[in-house]
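SAMPLE LOG
Freezer: B-3
Tube label: C17
Construct: single chain, 207 aa
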Amino acid sequence: MLRFILLFVLYISTQISFAKEVAVTVQFKNKTDIAFQKGFLIIEETQQKIAFTNTATRQVLLPQKGRYKLDFVSKGFFASINAPKLLKNKSIITITLLDSNSSIPFVTNTYGYELTPTVIEEQLAKDTLNFIIHTILPTDNKRQAAFKKNFGIGFIFKNCAIDPISFANAQKHNAALANYLLDKYGNDWLIALPVTPTGISIKKDGL
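STRUCTURE (predicted):
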């Protein structure tokens, strides 16, 4: 009887352990003419270093759903990772490979199109414009709300860990908004700015 109980407890424990695991899908987009040979997906929280010898889509097991810091390294490539903030079962991780010897291209901004003054005016009317901020520093929510009320632009906060492509995208996106505000308000908006947008250098006398 005791043996049966022990075996039953072991079985339940094993089932619970496996139930916590989640399977995520890793897929690649090779934007270069370079043949991929080998690379590693690095998951900081679990200390995993998962080897890939081709760009075929495959599944990777994580111990449980959660937030993970991901990196991918491969000789000759820049890697940009697109993944949900919360990884869970059936989540998809997309790794885009770019030539490390070429300049970093601008892929797209948050809205998927160029932020011209006309587009900015249209999005202001829809109340959907935001500066992109990559930081872990504490922020003043009251000043953010006041800034949005006065100038129509809010703030999206993202992980402080940023790859070259994401930085280039954020910089160009934020620069378009900053130039629009400068043309319309001069330097007045800079005084009210609660946090510095990623990629924008602010001096005492303006940008």
